Amino acid sequence: MSKPLNIAYESFSMFFSPAYMQMRLYGNQGPKHYPSPKGVDADYDGNVTFTFYAPDAQSVSVCGTGGAFGSEPIAMTKDSEGNWSVTVQNITPGFHYHYYIVDGTNVSNPQAPYGYGSHGSMNFFEVPDPNDDTYIYRDVDHGTIHMEIFKSSKTGQVKNCWIYTPPSYATDVNRKYPVLYLHHGGGETEACWIWQGKINYIADNLIAEGGCEEMIIVMNNLYDINYDNPGEFLAGDFDSLLTRDCMPFIESRYRVIPDSDMRAIAGLSMGSYHSAQTACNNPGMFGYVGMLSGSFDDRWYRWCDCRDVIANSEIFKRKTKLFYMSVGTDETRLYPQISENMEYLRKSGVPSVYYECPGYHEWTVWRKSIRNFMGLLFK
Residues near 260 by Cβ (< 8 Å), separated by ≥ 6? Predict the structure, then answer.
């Protein structure tokens, strides 16, 4: 067994501390637990052993979804107990989605961590990064994750949001805090920034080291869908859900500072486009706008012309303290678009900051991007 990983690397929504166990009946002695192989066992050198129990299968392989782990199937070998396994060396540190192919069918591994992506449950694994411990569990003061339920005034649907409050929130009861509205990407949910993004550990660690201001973070689901007409890229009127329903709800229940200078909005990929659209459709509402792996170029659907607002809205220019854009250097489609967007912001006179880091369109890049963004907020 390799050196135990930090709990943040393997925790996910189904359980916090993975129990790699099975239960067997032993005659009249009753059931007993015994260890089972980990579905994914990574070490600190980038070596990862994948194991899948399928005693009757004829072939099993493991495959990434693109990005740093690639997308070519890697054949696995079966042992005498029916466990298929393979060790892959030198996998890039960070977060990786993956799946298994059993006799030609794509399946998931019940003994590997699960996340939610591409509108379904997906296995993931983490390779520890010796140069980045911002998103792992540290022995510091920890904030609290809350779950709240409210209703969409437009669709009538009951909605869910998750809220991070910083460590001092529970004790400094007279203090009010700035707020970041943080959004997931396409095919994800309001919980993804917690389980895949590790946003609570990022915030805890930054606050402990003085790397960011203490803040409340609110995470919504972007899909407020009219199911009579769901076939849109921007599925539903999230702008209305956030500004008319969620924000008043949050401001009535949490000690947030209801001022644009103390209010930020950001998201990744599709969520970055949502964030820019909402900020531009409500100029002056958000002092800070963050786009992680996304551009404000026109998409197939929109509710606001971002370019027109950025260039011509005086209140947007006056109230926007920072427009932040980030990208992974391997995001070849987005890279030139974001470069052009940054030049457009500069020429329009909007304060802006650009950040890039090595990586693809995946959580490793978004964690680093949000850490950098949070360090610039509410100064």
Answer: 284, 285, 286, 287, 319
Query: Could you give all domains of the chain from N- to C-terminal order, each with its CATH number?
Result: 7-127 (2.60.40.10), 144-374 (3.40.50.1820)
Start-to-end Cα distance in the chain: 46
Q: What is the pLDDT of residue 184?
A: 96
209-260 pLDDT per residue, tens: 999 999 999 999 988 876 666 555 566 688 889 999 999 999 999 999 999 9
CA-CA-CA-CA torsion for 139, 140, 141, 142, nearest 10 degrees? Answer: -70
For 11, the token pair is 């925790």
Report the sign of the C-alpha dihedral through residues 176, 182, 188, 194, in that order.
Answer: negative
Q: Which two tokens stand for residue 224?
A: 């407020």
| Rounded-to-integer distance, Cα 256 and Cα 341, Å | 31
Alpha-carbon radius of gyration of the chain: 22
pLDDT of 2:
54
* Rounded Cα distance, 38 and 112, in Å: 7
The residues pairing with 160 across neighbouring beta strands, listed in sequence order, are 149
Name the 3-class secondary structure at 143. Answer: coil
Handedness of CA 223, 227, 231, 236 (dihedral sign): negative
Q: How confident is the model at residue 1 (pLDDT cuts 50, 70, 90)?
A: very low
- Look at 26-40, 105-119, 144-158, 196-210 and tell me which has the smallest mean pLDDT: 26-40
182 vs 252: CA distance, rounded Å:
19
Residue 352 and residue 291 in contact, taking contact as beta carbons nearer than 8 Å = no
CA proximity to 178, closest of 211, 147, 213: 213
* DSSP secondary structure string for all residues of 129-180: -TT--TTS--SS---EEEEEEEE-TTT--EEEEEEEE-GGGGT-TT--B-EE
